[in-house]
Specification:
With 190 residues, this protein is of the alpha+beta class. Helix content is 25%, strand content 35%. The radius of gyration is 16 Å and the shape is globular. The mean pLDDT is 94.
Length: 190
Amino acid sequence: MMHRIVSSEREQLILVDVNDREIGSLDKAACHDDAGVLHRAFSLFIFDARGELLLQQRSAAKRLWPLYWSNSCCSHPRLGETMDEATARRLDDELHIAAELEFVYKFAYEARFDAGGSENELCWVYLGRTRDTIMANQNEIAATRTLSAAALDEELSRDPDQFTPWFRMEWQHLRGKHMDTLRRYLAPAP
């Protein structure tokens, strides 16, 4: 278990327009205040050698969606950081793993958590696989687990409100328009 502090409400995020063109920067706190300000983000879906998806339960200290289950890792590239640098940094920061990632698609979404905060992101979605041992950063993650696609589908159907809104949207999109790509990761590794 790790306890490093790896993010700050003061870090500068990349503001974008709906076409993902950079238009400036703003601190993380302001990007998530009220209805939020559109900024670049990423979501990583990491599978193990058996083809099960790694899920994380967000830390109780998270401002938005604390203790909700979500995809393996999600965050933001910082100002001046490439997406490759950001995804590698965050996998190490949160899970202490590395993974070869495959970009699948990007989309814009908004989700309101409460009167004081929202997500308003243009999110890049990646799939990847790792054989590394997970060491969750407890400042970011309350728990981790792996699930088969069938078990995840069943949980999402039975109790969708235990999961973050972006994860539900992304999984549905992956299971629909990107099933051929997803199928490669759901299969056991050679």
